[in-house]
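Justification of computing resources. Each target in the renewal requires a structure prediction run like the one illustrated here; the chain below, 123 residues long, is used simply to show the kind of job we budget for.
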Amino acid sequence: MNRRPFLLFELLLSLTLLMLCLAPLLKTHLAIHKEEYLTLKKLRQERLCAAAFYHLKQQLYEQRQFSWAELCKAGFSSSIDGIEFEIDEVDHSQRKSQSSRALVLQVHFKESGIKRFLFLEHL
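Resulting structure tokens:
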């Protein structure tokens, strides 16, 4: 009967030593896992923004959802496939040789903070 408290103490001591030895080993693996998760999250956001950017260009060229008058205003915001975007800057340029207009838009995707430039030519 006197041996039981001593065995509990030995067990507690061994578990404490085990955790002290394993903690530094697990710390590096957890840090690597966290960095991989953040990288995958960033790549996912970039992929979603690229898909929304593609749909935006497609809808602009087909003139389905947005008009040129709306796009000429800086601060225009909308969403495509649940991804919100805003047009930050608009640069108008008139071609001398032709009667076409060109727009350079800076599209800012709000959630991820990604900014892309879009060059559009309107006849």
